[in-house]
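Q: Predict the assembly, please.
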Amino acid sequence: MDKLTEVLNLAKSKGYFWPSYEIYGGVSGFYTIGPMGSLVLKNIEDLWKSYFVRPNGFLEIDSPDIMPARVLKASGHVDNFKDPMAECAKCGSKYRADHLLSDSGIQVSESTSINQMNELLNQNKVKCPNCGATTWTVKQFLNMFETNIGPYADNKGYLRPETAQGIFVEFKTLLDINRGKVPMGIAQIGRGYRNEISPRQSMIRLREFHMMELELFMDPEDEKAPALDRDMKLPLLHEKVMEKGEPELISPYGAYKNGILKSAWLAYFLEKSFKFVMALGVPESKQRFIEKLVGERAHYSAQTFDHEVFFDEMGWTEVAGFAYRTDYDLKSHAKETGQELVVIEKKTISTRKTIKLNEKEVKNTHKKDWESIISSVPESREDGIYCAGIKLSSNEYKIIEEVEKEEVRKFVPYVVEPSFGLDRLLLATIYYAYGKKDGRNILSLPDVILGKVVAVLPLVSKKDMIEKAFEIKAMLEKSGYFVIFDEKGYIGKRYARLDEAGIPKAITVDGQTLEDGTVTIRDRDTWNQKRIRPSDLLV
Amino acid sequence: MDKLTEVLNLAKSKGYFWPSYEIYGGVSGFYTIGPMGSLVLKNIEDLWKSYFVRPNGFLEIDSPDIMPARVLKASGHVDNFKDPMAECAKCGSKYRADHLLSDSGIQVSESTSINQMNELLNQNKVKCPNCGATTWTVKQFLNMFETNIGPYADNKGYLRPETAQGIFVEFKTLLDINRGKVPMGIAQIGRGYRNEISPRQSMIRLREFHMMELELFMDPEDEKAPALDRDMKLPLLHEKVMEKGEPELISPYGAYKNGILKSAWLAYFLEKSFKFVMALGVPESKQRFIEKLVGERAHYSAQTFDHEVFFDEMGWTEVAGFAYRTDYDLKSHAKETGQELVVIEKKTISTRKTIKLNEKEVKNTHKKDWESIISSVPESREDGIYCAGIKLSSNEYKIIEEVEKEEVRKFVPYVVEPSFGLDRLLLATIYYAYGKKDGRNILSLPDVILGKVVAVLPLVSKKDMIEKAFEIKAMLEKSGYFVIFDEKGYIGKRYARLDEAGIPKAITVDGQTLEDGTVTIRDRDTWNQKRIRPSDLLV
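A: Predicted assembly structure:
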């Protein structure tokens, strides 16, 4: 059994996640996150916020899953969010055309056209996996879930393909709440939907998934990005080194300065992402960033990098995408709605002085030259004000100071978007936490992911010990711990069960507990035990 | 302007929530939760868990929004989750038939039939709000959002009308994870969808909403519910007092013992709910529980109580429902799938002794009576074993102990379900927090709802003060605070803005801060200020 299969089995038996609707024979592309998975998911979300949201004073929103068709028409999804679908002429089975081809060893890329795929399938006589026939028709399949809003048949809606559009359509209100200022970061954690033609690969190609997205709105002429790291190195498989196939190790600062990354915010987010995924337990060497070239990128993106994690069984697998969306989305919605979606920047121009002549006085003083004085522009010299080369006395002019003048600049902000697949991160986290010790499975999840989870175990099933254990359980639950209570079986077996489930600490209540109140605490990874007071856990 | 309108205006301008898609002209029944609303929502969720999930060791899961049609056919939703829809014969406008009638002053209840509504609308010549015509056709409208899963046209799906079904279909796996034990509580916080015919009432009738549900599975013959409160009083408008229209004040214990509540868990959850909604800031006197009578209840429920909160503008409004679903759902899914969805309870029968005679020895010892001894049943008396009235010596018999015998009992567990509408709770929380002080608006949200939010304000816009303020901001953000940074405008105006937004504390950085590091901290509700060190906030 390969590691991934072992991990998926463990994920089900220990309550992390499993394919939904199994009693109904299963429906591809849907997973249920179980009790342990829910705890981990919340902690991954919180860790993500500590990297991407909180340090920059960004905001978080929660917008609907259902979107009116007009919004997604304007955003370009109705026209572009499609996959090539091959239909077997004989049995009518439907597949992803590009997957059929690559499974048959025929190279395709994200820029291969529908017609090309049609030809390739038919000319190479690729067999239908269902009936063996070799005649195919390829067309585009819109992979958004369609529905109808309300009772009128013409009111079409879609389930959002990304949370981002729920942010773009609320840009105006959000900018008001942020008091007109950019850079403004708006995060959203929620579900995305993609009506895959024939999903495979368990947690990787889901029809319904969890996303964490951040739309960073900024002034393209003055990005105001945080300082970039000049020392750390990111493995970037960017356009210029793509042919070699090996990532270049380069600092975020260098990659931005050299023009490899088109935005300083993009560089900043790649840096953050690398550290974030490391904190989940994925080693540096199992991460890389790969640039998506023209034709591979989404329709809205001027530059895209995918953050990939390596799995032995699946190779490099995307866990996050970073798109430089520019002003594409705001402009599209502005055009469709006729609304102005802009930042209004008011600049104060520095103090300006103007000299105004007192014409009456000039006429009285300069009987001869007054006309040439009045018709020329006064000039300020070190020793006074001159006009037509003649020095004026102070009663002949007034200096008017315009102290403030506002200059208004309107612009459509540019957007950089980090977008994370939460289910894939969950899988990667468990995959890299999974290991063996003395032939037993251990799920060594990082503390930041499962810190506040603890098991409480009465050593033997005696009434007073169970009561004491319940007392400790209640105390820990009051302090926000998630407590697993397990009173059955040999203690060694219970420890083994907990190690495999990833529970970081186990507290055992024994005879001595009844005497002096102390318990043993056992560590999942080292198997070390020591006696403590239960309240020591709370500090 | 009434209070509700004021609250809704504030909710938008301060970033709590607002109607979605406004730049597209709006789509009824959809709301976006803004930055402040997201913070509050998370805290309401966490508070709910501290009442309903953590204290009992319950589990939480996260299942898909999209469900295959077969699941919701089995659950009874496809046949029952419908509203009466009246269509105008002239202009084709569609409305909730019962709303049209009650708006015209004609009494209907949840048990009035389609045919009755049809007659009532036409006979009373109720006018179409759109064109004024008076001819109607009433039919049932299925209010689930329908979609198609994958590329095959016959693979229908629905957006879940409740999170509960995602729990019921995973019951088998969840019971395994819980090691076969009931009571087992499974919570889910997520979205629900209801394709309303013509939603009105802002946050009350949403087409997409946030729910918090708990399915409590238990043995109906031995509920094992926690101890019920005998002292607190709940206002129950139950069946027996419904006609009087006034709730009876009765303890959860009393209501269960008197048969007003059919399950002890139901009584326990009502008690919890009352305390929970009080913690959100809704006074006792603005809460009640009302029983839903036959015909008003959902198809799956043997007893339902709604938890209602009073709004001046809308009257009593449901924020939660408590349904005694019995074994309805598990039986329905078991029937449809042929799977056994049961709890298997293994009982150990108490130790049993049997006495076996050593016939050879008996024959040797009792030459005369051995036949009558062997043919009778041995009897255990205080002083030894007798057979046919004769005391036997210890070599004449053996006592065989059957130490353990397992008795297996299978049963379909019963379910009690608390189900909360999170959006309505959010509205109620803000509504009851909203008030005035010296003519100014204050949103006095309870600390538990917005505790870790703070504003940091440099007194004047000077470089060193702003830098110091940023330092304090970073420190607070590191400790998990959500920090609002506001450097513009007179300090009094800034305080007023923060009071209205509900921000509990404001920290002001002034000249003295630059000298000794102290700041002033100002309280939203009392307007009191005192000097502290910023690190004092963290303890």
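Chain B touches chain A through 84 residues (CB under 8 Å). The domain at 3-81+143-332+416-422 of chain B is CATH 3.30.930.10 (BirA Bifunctional Protein; domain 2).
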